[in-house]
Amino acid sequence: MHCPFCRTPDSRVIDSRTSDDGLSIRRRRQCPKCGGRFSTVETASLNVIKRSGVVEPFSREKVMSGVRKACQGRPVTDADLAMLAQQVEEAIRQTGSSQIEANEIGLSILGPLRELDEVAYLRFASVYQAFESLDDFDAAIAQLRADHAARSSAAPVAVDDVQ
Asked: Can you give the pTM of this predicted structure?
């Protein structure tokens, strides 16, 4: 790390702290030559490989903008979208890979989006799972209904006290 004051190619770490979200580290540094102090923020880079082969940095904003289109007209707030984007980024980072294909990001959005809004999920899934006919939509809706039925039958039933 070059000193921003004298450009010496070395510095000493005085203090390190993890950010609140755990995705970056703030380091306080001191230059051994001029004594100047400065801070750095370190993050693990995460790159997206687009369909065209172009590589660009991961962006939560792009995730939010893509999902926002599927949520148009639905009761989903910007805060909901921000939480979804954070969940997706955390899931991708947990894979340990520094590069991920754009299509994999789209597929990783499906789970959290399904929990957020099922109609938006169907809209989004129709693109990323390449629905080609009404049968594909019918199958997805049937799966949602089956999951609802399984959840409602597995829900605990309140039993009145027997006298």
From this structure: 0.67
Burial 95-120 (b: 16+ CB within 10 A, else e): eeeeebebebbbebbeebbbebbbeb
Task: Assess contact for 67 and 53: CB atoms under 8 A.
Answer: no
Instruction: Report in angstroms the alpha-carbon separations of 17 from 3, 113, 151.
Output: 20, 32, 42
Tell me how crowded residue 80 is: count the other CB atoms within 10 A of its CB. 19
Helix (H, G, I), strand (E, B) or coil at 158: coil
What b/e string do you get for 54-65 counting C-beta neighbours within 10 Å, with b at 16 or more?
eeeebeeeebbe
Q: How confident is the model at residue 55 (pLDDT cuts 50, 70, 90)?
A: very high
- Which residue in this structure is represented by tokens 């051994």? 32
Tokens 């979208």 identify what position?
A: 81
Cα R_g (the chain), whole angstroms: 23
pLDDT of residue 56: 94
DSSP 8-state code for residue 37: E
Beta strands, E only, the chain: 12-18, 24-30, 37-43, 47-49, 55-57, 99-101
Question: Could you give the strand order of the β-sheet that contains 55-57, starting from the edge strand earlier in sequence?
Answer: 55-57, 47-49, 99-101
